[in-house]
Task: inverse folding
């Protein structure tokens, strides 16, 4: 059985090969920088982060008079780690009773899977969990969450064709009454229009605040690591509408290019609490900048 780190490395291997092969026996010249720029752009790092990484690298090469391509690669690795380090943050538990988390993301991003994995993670940290089936738009989402809850002894509050904000409101009240530690509110990923979706999510957030002052304590966006630069557009849109407190990036075991984390760090540095590296419960791992960059730049 593969370790999650191996799956992460495999997932990022294409980008990793593109980047690391550039340095093998390379001369440190403009050609190398140009190829590096292309490889970074191809990895979804985006223009801003790419130019930043190149500028910093050139500076260090000059200052430290680096001539060996392996040393230059190491320098890039360290610059990359420093860029991603601010995204590293652990989910703080026990500060609110209950802690209310709103989980958003477009359909297919891995939202339901992540909620299940997160619930397990929280239980392992001695937190009782209640789930609110706030995606009332898609019956399948509600069922998926309910089945998952039954299998794992987690209460799921669900209403057939109910108002998602009402489900969230009831869930928070129920958690308060039962002394539950964490409420996770699942939300819809798609409605007839994007504008609709944002309005519904904002409404859920307002109503959650009414049910408990200071809530939601976490507003988390789940994004598919394979969506490329569009992931950044999602982060911006959801952050503008809801004020995100954290991200979960899924499917980094697939064919993700990985550079999207650099783009996020440079343009919307929102903490990445976890990364998804597979479909199983244990495949949700806290984000660690060094581990990630090691997987990317070996
Ligand atoms: P939702 O529509 O956002 O709720 O997405 P789902 O949770 O239903 O996930 C969509 C698909 O992605 C499912 O087949 C999941 O098993 C899969 N998935 C979710 N997270 C990961 C991950 O980290 N790695 C892999 N390989 N698959 C994942």
Result:
């Amino acid at each position: 059985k593969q370790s999650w780190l191996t799956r992460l490395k495999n997932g990022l291997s294409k980008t990793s090969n593109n980047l690391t092969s550039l340095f093998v026996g390379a001369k440190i010249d403009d050609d190398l920088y140009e190829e590096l720029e292309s490889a970074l752009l191809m990895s979804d790092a985006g223009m801003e982060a790419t130019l930043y990484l190149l500028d910093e690298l050139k500076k260090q090469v000059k200052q430290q008079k680096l001539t060996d391509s392996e040393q230059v690669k190491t320098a890039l690795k360290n610059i990359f780690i420093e860029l991603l380090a601010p995204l590293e943050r652990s989910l703080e538990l026990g500060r609110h009773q209950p802690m209310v988390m709103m989980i958003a993301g477009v359909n297919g991003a891995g939202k339901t899977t992540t909620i299940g994995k997160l619930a397990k993670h929280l239980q392992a940290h001695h937190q009782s969990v209640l789930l609110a089936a706030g995606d009332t738009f898609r019956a399948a989402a509600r069922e998926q969450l309910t089945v998952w809850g039954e299998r794992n002894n987690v209460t799921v509050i669900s209403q057939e064709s109910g108002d998602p904000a009402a489900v969230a409101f009831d869930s928070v009240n129920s958690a308060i009454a039962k002394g539950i530690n964490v409420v996770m509110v699942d939300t819809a990923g798609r409605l007839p229009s994007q504008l609709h979706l944002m309005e519904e999510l904002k409404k859920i957030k307002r109503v959650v605040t009414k049910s408990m002052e200071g809530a939601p304590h976490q507003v988390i966006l789940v994004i598919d690591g394979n969506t490329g630069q569009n992931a950044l557009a999602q982060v911006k849109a959801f952050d503008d509408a809801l004020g995100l407190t954290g991200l979960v990036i899924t499917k980094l075991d697939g064919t993700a290019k990985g550079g999207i984390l650099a783009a996020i760090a440079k343009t919307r540095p929102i903490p990445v609490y976890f990364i998804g590296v597979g479909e199983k419960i244990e495949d949700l791992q806290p984000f660690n900048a060094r581990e990630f960059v090691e997987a990317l730049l070996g």
Q: What stands out?
A: The first strand starts at residue 99 and ends at 104. The beta strands are 99-104, 129-132, 155-157, 182-186, 218-224, 246-250, 272-276, 284-286. The mean pLDDT is 95. The CA atoms of residues 23 and 70 lie 7 Å apart.
